[in-house]
């Protein structure tokens, strides 16, 4: 359960305009901050981000859902990757302000941002949700180098039916936690052998276990 009485939104200026950090503080003594950016097709209300924000504070993890400036401004199209990275860099001091190790992450485009910038910003590790390994139907356009080049511990969580890269397509050493029947948004068909709640539990359980096992300086 989140500590709802203390959750709040922080506005942060970036080169691309105002961004927002939706803070979900750890219920007890915090161990780390998990900073998660959203994708290019949606915001921090994504089912996987919302599930992690609800589940993890109870285990000593402060969750920070980062809303990029383009989304705050109400625009429907995300800017180029360079602009996303610049905004993330500008946000980082606020994410590090609690004085805790910060695990950088996000879903889809947000995962790519985290991978590209994590090491330079001093992140402890990277969480990649629905990493877009390649455009749908274009496996030759691989982005695996972003994922494998972080130099940090990385956890990938991927839907089994994700058209941007199924779990078995990932390079050795970055094998994802597979969410059965999940698509790019981790939605599962109504006729699947698991429920939507079960699918989200796979995500939150895997992330909680991985975070608990990280060695933080």
What features would you describe in this structure?
The protein has 217 residues and is an alpha/beta fold. 30% of the residues lie in helices and 22% in strands. The chain contains 6 helices and 8 strands, in the order βββαβααβαβαββα. An 8-stranded mixed β-sheet has the order 1-2-4-3-5-6-7-8, with helices on both faces. It is globular and about 40 Å long. 41% of the residues are buried. Mean pLDDT is 94; it is low at 1-5.
The biggest beta sheet reads: 8 strands, mixed
Shape from CA axes?
A: globular
Order of helices and strands: EEEHEHHEHEHEEH
- Determine the strand fraction and express it as a percent band: 15-25%
Rg on CA atoms, Å: 16 Å
Brief summary:
This protein has 217 residues and is an alpha/beta fold. It is 30% helix and 22% strand.
Based on the model shown, name its key terms.
6 helices; globular; 22% strand; single chain; 30% helix; 217 residues; alpha/beta
